[in-house]
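Tutorial sheet, problem 5. The two components below are modelled jointly, 973 residues in total.
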Amino acid sequence: MRYLPLTDVDRAKMRAVIGIETDADLYADVPRSALLSQPVDLPGPQGEMEVERAIAALAAKNLSSAKAPSFLGAGAYRHHIPATVDAMIQRGEFLTAYTPYQPEISQGTLQMLFEFQTQVAMLTGMEVANASMYDGATACAEAVLMAGRVTRRHRAVLAGGLHPHYRDVTATSAHFIGFDLVGPDSDPSHPAFAASVIDLIDDNTACVVVQTPDVFGRIIDLRPIAEAAHARGALLVAVTTEILSLGLLESPGAQGADIVAAEGQSLGNPLGFGGPYVGLFATRASLVRQMPGRVAGQTLDVEGQRGWVLTLSTREQHIRREKATSNICTNSGLCALAFSIHAALLGEEGLGRLARINHANARALADRLTTVPGVEVLNESFFNEFTVRLSKPAMDVADALAERGILGGVPVSRLLPERTDLKDLMLVAVTELNTGADMDALANALQEVLS
Amino acid sequence: MTDFSQGRTNVPMGGSQAPGAQTVSGSRGLEFAEPLIFEMHHEGRTGVDLPDVPVSDARLNGMRRQGPVGLPGLSEPQVVRHYTRLSQKNYGIDSGFYPLGSCTMKHNPRLGEKAARMAGLGDLHPLQPFSTVQGALELVDTLAHWIKTLCGMPAVAMSPAAGAHGELCGMMAIKAAIEDRGEAATRTRVLVPDSAHGTNPATAAACGFSVDSIPANDRGRVDVAALKAKLGPDVAGVMLTNPNTCGLFETEILDIADAVHAAGGYFYCDGANFNAIVGRVRPGDLGIDCMHLNLHKTFATPHGGGGPGAGPTVLSDALAPYAPVPYIVHDAKGLRLVERQADAGEGEKPFGRIKGFHGQMGVFIRALVYMMSHGAEGLLQSSTDAVLNANYLRARLGDVMSVPFDGICMHEVLFDDAFLHDTGVTTLDFAKAMIDEGFHPMTMYFPLVVHGALLMEPTESESKETLDGYVATLRALTERAKAGDVQFFKDAPRLTPRRRLDETTAARKPVLRWTPPVEDNA
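Model answer (structure tokens):
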């Protein structure tokens, strides 16, 4: 077998050194009744060619979003990934390293994480960031739990417009740990968004969670909510599922956020059917000891040379065990690397240009769709994603578009099936990868499907 | 936070460098002094070519960014060189032997990288209509089938993103089952052995349980009598690692499972060490109610410098109804996902959701590729070779190092620091000397049940020649330690991009990001 270097001759010699006769002797400690007497019922070994063929056959049953005009977003966005990103993350020294426990031989990963943390802090307008979380939704849940530790309160207000997966992940954690969640229903046409949140803040509130752009694409002004939260001693947790928006929009930090939980997939990471992605987590310096997750810090070696280590580990599970800030013991290292390389390539100028192209394309499509009978664009404001009300149920429309080879948008009922009042709504995302021809194809197909 | 007076990277400040190591540039041959990207900024440089499209503020709700982000400008060649140089400061399984105990650093086949990037897999949006992702769902379902078959368990939750996340999934399922029985208020305690990974007690706490620890016996196993004495109507469950973190199979595991169940509790098994028993022992036959698998350990997906991983969690009949969303169901139109609790079918009581979208698809593809390549027999041979390799190290090092627990071990072998007694050399010093010899150290100071632990997991990926070279090196280092050459160890490592780093100051005065140097106007 190509992955196994031991030969039968090696194995026999090694058994002799150990002083055993058969492989079974290695498992003498296992209760006899628990030992399998024959191999499990699974297929036999296959060569590279056969495996590759089998996986390719599965891939061929899918509609590749790269081969279709694709306007799906809702927390995962199709962006161009520079070739450099994928080439660099496949360097074996990055790809096949473990968590950097031995800093002397992990300076590559550690310096990269330090740079990543800096980039995330800069983008979000916060003072510090951690070395990443599993994804945006888990980062959101961790942010709420952290706010509970900071304020010693156990109630959170979740604004309408928070991505339903983020809401569900947060609610699941909150349920098991005994944390109350309140919040208005998601409604894209709510006339008084800020008031609907602010009215729920009380003196027991640990935090308010607000997503911007929200799941419907609306750009929220966080400042009045931050002010109201702070007045009651609560924290503002700002969420974003589209980190690229911060190339054009004011950062949450500048609007008074205390914690930022975001999805970083848009930079450097492919759609990949939903994962692995990279959760971004940033906060104020004064709160850093309540922050979950791994973090790299700068220090000196015995020769006085600058270097990096994992630090603040006294917050973490391997030291604190049940008193840790979180049970997390990894980050999303390679996805953070991809994010960081993409951000390094973009730089200040590239990031701003990319964000503006996204917004310009979204505006072009919104204008185009407004002319299609049966389509109403609901958003006053948006970055690269907006909500449309259709004259037919959005799920049916999405299926009909898919039959025409177009991935037209995410029906809100895919995320909120219980909200029958929102079944005509569809989320439409537009990025730099969408051409004018894509937009024409969508508009024409919608016209057909809705007529 | 803004203390950044520590000087340039490249300037050697100490006088203890090896003769000849000092250079004008700070670089040393193939090992480059590399600044931070922020220190490489040059106005006007970019690594992408994008048009400058003006946009108005009309649809921005007045929230256009006012100030710059602060990102540096670099050209593409600079970026390529930067990350190439950083990678050269890293040790990976591709570089050499990586016997990090409990981490299963085995070879990562590149076929998985190729497969994960195929069109129709790497570029699928998670919310495409189900009709357009039947192949992807079939792939996840196939992996689930392999996992369930290898574990002898009826169900698996695929969405956990890592081992610790799988623990969370399993413990939440236990709590949901207990709530369903109406015992949430009374069954509040979870028993965890002293030797457990720190994630176990942290996970139990994250589910609102209190944690009670169980001691190990003098054979490195759970003290079953002590465990039984702590069982009672207030115990929700037991979290046990098997094979355990001493590298030993829990010989009385069937008895433990029976006792936990008789007391009305559930049996969580930490599957971090599954690589020892794949294809030979099924957790389902051990009375386990739930166990996470680390696909990035047992099934060879790359660790990526600390993630991403994947931690699918198998569930017994008792816990299967509580599996979180999403999960795959088969219906007349093919495969689809149940994504919301509200959509659960008859008899299904999902406890909630623990991750956005559906799980770590990129990791699933790599794991399935690995499993298919090996097939049933190959997986069995892999676990056998892993155990053989560990026992070979035990046999060849046991006379000069100290083995706290006699007998055959599983896929990892535990030593304590008794062999260093009175030498002045610590486990840490010993590990750092191994680095200079070209080896990644073993896991140190874990498990906590022995003094100065050295936990080695060679995996099946290593040849006998590699092990022999490692043994020869460790025997020589041991001899050197016993000969009293303490300074040699205290100075190690000498040949690395950085030498020992000041972790105390890093934690006391944390510098967690780069900040622009303050202009000196004086």
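Marking note: Residues 341 and 347 of chain A are 10 Å apart (CA to CA). Full credit if you identified this.
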